[in-house]
Design goal:
Layout (H helix, E strand, L loop, with lengths): L2 H8 L3 H15 L4 E11 L28 H13 L4 E6 L9 H13 L5 E5 L5 H10 L3 E3 L6 H7 L5 H13 L3 E3 L2 E3 L5 H13 L6 E6 L16 H14 L4 E4 L8 H10 L3 E3 L12 H11 L2 E2 L23
Helix pairs in contact: 1-8, 2-9, 3-4, 4-5, 5-7, 8-9, 9-10
The chain binds S-adenosylmethionine, 6-(5-methyl-2-OXO-imidazolidin-4-yl)-hexanoic acid (DTB) and iron/sulfur cluster.
Length: 331
């Protein structure tokens, strides 16, 4: 969808917008299901990048120490626990600029993915930049989806990160798609962006070919010590509008209500589900920050008559729909 189309929808009265997104939601996701995804930080902190929102950048004093890659056995144990608790996707995150073939770190990750992929959950990784070879190897090892967020608009990106570019993010996404992995890509609300930036972010996401399999919408968790520590929270209705727009712009994607849920009321989350969210991170920790307790999440789903989505471990990447380019080039 173009910026102009998104803007027209954004300017609708709130109820008109969520009525439209509800229709798109029901057309593609009639089952009243919510996907439960468990996140695990397999390598925490000490990252060379300067993403100004991130607790794990070595540039800021956030109290998050640099750790080593978690041993495989421990990761498998956590993945089995996640599966036993109803998660159908296991997402492993590493605080790296990226991974390179021929390094011990990459060989270790490949071994971990091979083992986790035997457990019958969708396997997602988020390891930073990938080249074509790394993407191919991860796909062969069993990664179903690669998470790489564009985070904000092309124009605003340089205000939040200086150690890599928006185009670098697009290149990794292209490499992951070319290797046959599904893409999980979304962004963060509350990075000092304006409405235009938010809509331009969605324009880029909806222009991917194929479109992302999932779109995480994170609300900034302000981390003391980072340049974003004092950012104002985003208005509740703006978050819901973005969920609604994501549902309309990328109708077949899972729209994941991601970071920031501990600050959201049950009523707000219910409106997000109504407007088109159908996935959450499940488990009491995200990467370094808190997430709602699992029991609270299960209770909320029950109260709303929603059920956890059934597993689809064989998930294939969506096919390209035509010869459109990946996304508008950065200017
Ligand atoms: N290093 C990898 C990367 O940059 O893609 C993977 C890990 S990174 C922490 C994954 C994503 O988490 C970021 O792209 C960002 O969208 C989200 N994130 C990180 N810190 C956050 C925060 N404080 N609040 C909200 N979302 C955050
Ligand atoms: C995504 O979009 N959000 C998740 C996951 N992908 C990797 C990460 C949220 C991190 C929130 C801050 C923290 O826990 O450090
Ligand atoms: Fe590193 Fe990813 Fe955090 Fe950026 S978002 S500092 S790349 S871990």
């Amino acid at each position: 969808m173009t910026y102009a189309e998104l803007k027209e929808l954004y300017d609708l009265p709130f109820f008109d917008l969520i009525q439209r997104s509800r229709r798109a939601h029901e057309a593609h996701w009639p089952e009243n299901e919510v996907q439960l995804c468990t996140l695990l930080s397999i390598k925490t902190g000490g990252c060379s990048e300067d993403c100004s929102y991130c607790a794990q950048s070595a540039r800021y004093s956030t109290g998050v120490d640099a750790g080593r890659l978690m041993p495989k056995d421990e990761i498998i144990e956590r993945a089995e626990f996640a599966k036993a608790n109803g998660s159908t996707r296991f997402c492993m995150g590493a605080a790296w600029k990226g991974v390179r073939e021929g390094t011990k770190r990459f060989d270790d990750v490949i071994e971990i993915v091979e083992s986790v992929s035997q457990l019958g959950m969708e396997v997602c990784t988020t390891l930073g930049e990938l080249g074509p070879t790394e993407a191919q190897k991860l796909k062969e090892a069993g990664v179903t989806a690669y998470n790489h967020n564009i985070d904000t608009s092309p124009d605003h990106y340089e205000n939040i990160v200086s150690t890599h570019t928006f185009q670098d993010r697009l290149n990794t996404i292209r490499n992951a798609q070319d290797a046959g992995m599904s893409i999980c890509s979304g962004g963060i609300l509350g990075l000092g962006e304006n409405n235009e930036d938010r809509l331009k972010m969605l324009e880029v996401l909806s222009g991917f070919n194929p479109q992302p399999e999932s779109v995480p919408i994170n609300s900034l968790v302000p981390i003391p010590g980072t340049p974003m520590a004092e950012q104002q929270g985003v208005d509740t209705f703006d978050v819901i509008r973005m969920i609604a727009l994501a549902r309309i712009a990328v109708p077949k994607a899972k729209v994941r209500l991601s970071a920031g849920r501990t600050q959201m009321s049950e009523e707000m989350q219910a409106l997000c589900f109504f407007a088109g969210a159908n996935s959450i991170f499940y488990g009491d920790k995200l990467l370094t920050t808190c997430n709602p307790q699992t029991e609270a999440d299960l209770n909320l789903l029950k109260k709303l008559g929603l059920s956890p989505q059934k597993p689809r471990p064989e998930m294939e990447a969506p096919a390209c729909e035509n010869e459109r380019p990946l996304a508008p080039a950065c200017s």
